[in-house]
Amino acid sequence: MKVLVIGSGAREHAIVRSLVADQSVDAVVAAPGNPGIDRLALCEPLTDVTDAEAVLEVARRHAVDLVVIGPEAPLVAGVADVLRDSGFDVFGPSAEAARLEGSKAFAKEVMSAAEVPTGMAHLCTTLDEVAESIDAFGAPYVIKDDGLAAGKGVVVTEDRAAALAHAEACLAKEGGEVVVEEFLEGPEVSLFVLSDGTTVVPLTPAQDFKRVGDDDAGPNTGGMGAYSPLSWAPEGLTGDLVRRVAQPTIDEMRRRGTPFVGVLFIGLAMTGRGPRVIEFNARFGDPETQVVLARLLTPLGGLLKAAATGRLEEYDALRWSEEHAVTVVVASHNYPGTPRTGDPISGLDDVEGVPTAYVLHAGTALDGDGTLVSAGGRVLSVVATGADLGQARERVYAAVDLVGLDGGHHRSDIALRASRDEIAVG
Q1: Which residues partner with 217 through β-bridges?
Q2: Which residue of 55, 177, 178, 273 has the lowest C-beta tally within 10 Å?
Q3: What φ, ψ does residue 220 adopt, rounded to 5°?
Q4: Which of the pair, 350 or 177, is modelled with greater confidence?
Q5: DSSP character for 234?
């Protein structure tokens, strides 16, 4: 099997890494990929991942057997539809099904129809409506851009003025709408569920860290780290979420004539009233993918192919490593503001000396001299595994300390509370 992976981040690097390890996969092509992926697979230039015709040309030229679409933007733009219409097997939902991520309001509508437990929410199109809604819900205020925002469209704040300012910026966009939600108290969980449109197969839960600074200080980011498994999660949580959230949602999408094929990312809060869905995404999450795939023993290529071709019922259960995995994101100067780019990156070869540790590239590039430099906000994901969370943390931070990036920063507390058994549910 020859697989084409669309995207250029650490999520795609993790996917490519797992595909290369699958003996049923003969070759992997990535478009556009990144310098880290280029060491594992053939990288093809691709200026715009939402350009369906350009993606189709790469798929045809390499006669691939499966296309895996990593980011959300090409899914919402309908790239999967064009590929399927041209005869390719695709892991990734249609544009209609990807609305589960492309529109927070649509996702809430589907949750309501499927009787999925979630928080109360109001769709607002004016600032007056936003003000009325946040006053009704009270602080902390949760304001979400209805459309795609690269993981940074959500503001959770006690500051009413800051909430209104974020809403105003979202509404200023063409067709801008805002979803105001009640705040859901409790530790957050990310669960990926593979779907072929009918059958669902869950992966293992993870937890990510959205705020830029230690102790959840500062603004939201695309994610600064993650870990898996969640030893504090209630027994049977995954099965419960499949029954109450994933399967009803997949059934509702099929009932609407827009079957969901790909991975449904369920973000939820473990509240005192039980699990409540915060959001759906229509693709693998970043950085959770980095730790989930680090533990997956079932070959990934065959699994994604089965989802793309309606054969997931062949998988009774997936195989997982007993080890714990942690990833820490190394970000560039000023991220999540406008990041500084072009800074040289050093020390990556030294990471290989840390047991189980490895580096996944996200925002990297080669300059004119062939030097590896930063080229985005989240530059690297450093991953390590261990017999327990403490050992995985020790290894991953030993590896992070070897990475050199002028102005770079990272959180020092990824998985710290979990490693100390300080997380309580309910």
Answers
A1: 213
A2: 273
A3: -70, 150
A4: 350
A5: P
Q: CA separation (Å) from 54 to 2, 57, 65, 282, 382?
A: 18, 5, 17, 22, 31
The identity of residue 340, as a single letter, is R
Contact assessment for residue 326 and residue 396, using Cβ atoms and an 8 Å cutoff:
yes
Asked if the model's pLDDT at residue 151 lies above 70, the reply is no
258: tokens are: 């827009």
How many CA atoms within 13 Å lie on the side-chain side of 224? 26
Q: What angle do CA 20, 250, 50 make, to 5 degrees?
A: 55
**Is the link from the previous residue into 339 a cis peptide, with omega within 30 of 0?**
no
Measured CA to CA, the distance from residue 223 to residue 378 in angstroms comes to: 9
Mean predicted lDDT score pLDDT of the chain: 95
CB of 363 within 8 A of CB of 379?
A: yes
Q: Would you say 321 and 295 are in contact if contact means Cβ atoms under 8 Å apart? A: yes
N residues, the chain: 426
Q: Which residues pair with 118 in a beta bridge?
A: 277
Averaged pLDDT, 82-107: 95
Q: How many CB atoms lie within 10 A of CB 376?
A: 19
Q: In this structure, what are the phi and psi dihedrals at residue 240, rounded to the nearest 5 degrees?
A: -65, -40
For the record, the structure tokens of 20 come out as 């290369």
Among all chains, which residue has been given the structure tokens 């019922």? Answer: 313
Q: Which residue has the tokens 């790909």?
A: 262
Contact between residue 390 and residue 324 where contact means Cβ atoms under 8 Å apart: no
Order the strands of the 178-181 sheet from edge to edge: 121-124, 178-181, 141-145, 154-157
Summarize pLDDT for 302-344 with one digit per residue, the tens: 999 999 999 999 998 899 999 999 999 999 999 999 999 999 9
